[in-house]
Write a structure and sequence with these properties.
Rossmann fold; 3 domains; 14 helices; about 20% strand
């Protein structure tokens, strides 16, 4: 059932009582609706759809012209909407007129009914499970949103618009797509026949102003002491892998770490969908590309990592390694590109090592396991594990050093661990913080080559 039909059904089921005196004085607008024999919600929806059709008739060529966007188009749409509303014969309250203008503008130029959610700074993720079932994440908690698409076709139009803006496509032949919004927010869409209950759209929002290390300290993601340690690692050109689950904050942490890279170094970033927001001037951004409609022309992350090696980078930052690109990343770390950064999916530092080993094997390389582990032990210096805890907060739970090989096993020692034993408060939030284990990293003395010193006090237990 379409949204307009559902609104009509709800309106009819909630007809006003026959005794006006029991509900207080009626507004003039409501009196006009009753005199015309119309229901408020139903008429507003009908007017919105009618005006949207009229807008398409008047501005169609302009709206759908290649590259149509910007403040000029936005102003023209709003002006035309105002004129159409003024010519509308249906009596409307001022609030209804404003709502119609907002809804039509969002639908024509933005992302339809979810545009208001994308503007809401408290919403960190929007999840569309079909046209009439939308959820959001606020402060780490999921809740249902009170907005809906008109129908499946309406949702598909919005998905197609998002994909077309970044040169991607989604259809029955290619029913899954990764894309991004102009502000860098990550988008994933799945459509039928893969999505059985209607098209699915997931948008992970990125803040217009990226979070800083001070923000993460305030949120409790890390402590001032661990922030100082990570800064010395980045300035000391240590290779760092950020590990964690989906939505744990890996990309945010990668942005924070990249802020410590000196401004006189050349950085090349490689991503599936451009999300990183580096502040340095000397940055080259590369983005992978899927097959075109003819099944050709794909450029993988692995291709881009190999090409990045020829671009004279001081550092390579890979948004996420999830396939055989792990081998190329390890080789880059081992061939003069110290201080490189990347992320991957894993539940713990040792699991991250196993994941890297598995991804190298995915490339079909006939390498002995011992050789792969040697590469990992030689390339990776620090593994930073970040998790989304059950209270909705994102916390760093491990900072571990890869210290080398012991027999056929990659040896790892924990430098900082999250204190889960501190329990939770009355609101269910974890009280613990990231505490040092007392171990000092073996690479601490090597940082002097880069003019960086690592105070021993960072690893003293009982101090902040």
């Amino acid at each position: 059932m379409s949204l307009s039909a559902r609104i009509a059904a709800r309106t009819q089921s909630q007809a006003p009582p026959s005794e006006p005196a029991e509900q207080g004085p009626l507004s003039a607008t409501t009196e006009r609706y009753r005199a015309a024999g119309m229901q408020t919600g139903d008429s507003v929806t009908e007017v919105r759809l009618r005006i949207q059709r009229q807008l398409a008739d008047e501005l169609g060529p302009t709206l759908y012209a290649a590259g149509a966007a910007g403040d000029d188009l936005d102003a023209r749409v709003r002006q035309t909407l105002t004129e159409l509303i003024a010519r509308e014969q249906t009596p409307l309250a001022g609030a209804d007129k404003a709502r119609i203008i907002r809804d039509v503008t969002d639908d024509v130029l933005g992302h339809g009914p979810i545009e208001s959610l994308l503007r809401d700074p408290s919403v960190s993720e929007v999840m569309v499970n079909g046209p009439d079932l939308i959820f959001v994440e606020r402060f780490g908690r999921l809740e249902r949103a009170d907005v809906e698409f008109d129908d499946e076709a309406h949702l598909r139009r919005i998905i197609d618009r998002i994909c077309s803006r970044v040169g991607r496509r989604v259809d029955e032949a290619s029913p899954m797509v990764d894309a991004r919004l102009p502000d860098g927010s990550r988008v994933n869409a799945v459509v039928p026949p893969v999505a059985l209950d209607g098209s699915s759209l997931t948008i992970r929002k990125f803040s217009a102003s990226p979070l800083t290390v001070d923000d993460l300290i305030r949120f409790g993601t890390l402590t001032a002491r661990t922030a100082e340690f990570l800064e010395t690692c980045v300035r000391g050109r240590r290779n760092i892998v950020v590990s964690g689950g989906t939505g744990s904050g890996k990309t945010t942490m990668l942005n924070v770490l990249s802020a410590y890279v000196p401004y006189d170094e050349r950085i090349v970033t490689v991503e599936d969908a451009a999300e990183l927001q580096l502040r340095q001037d000397h940055v080259v951004r590369l983005e992978s590309r899927p097959n075109n409609s003819e099944g050709r022309g794909s450029i993988s992350t692995r291709d881009l990592v190999r090409n990045a090696l020829r671009m004279r980078p001081d550092r390579i930052v890979v948004g996420e390694v999830r396939d055989a690109a792990a081998l190329d990343m390890l080789q880059a770390m081992n061939t003069g590109h110290d201080g490189s950064l990347t992320t991957l999916h894993a539940n713990a530092p040792r699991d991250a090592i196993a994941r890297m080993e598995t991804m190298v094997l995915m490339g079909g390389m006939d390498l002995p396991v011992r050789a792969i582990r040697d590469q990992i032990a030689s390339a990776v210096d620090v593994i930073l594990q970040i998790s989304r805890l059950k209270d909705g907060s994102r916390r760093i739970t491990h900072i571990s050093e890869v210290v080398g090989m012991e027999s056929d096993v990659v040896s790892v020692q924990d430098l900082f661990l999250f204190d889960f034993k501190a329990g939770t408060d009355s609101a269910g939030r974890f009280r613990g913080t990231l505490e040092p284990t007392g171990l000092r990293p073996r690479f601490a003395d090597d940082l002097a080559v880069y003019g960086v010193t690592m105070p021993a006090a960072l690893f003293t237990k009982g101090r902040r």
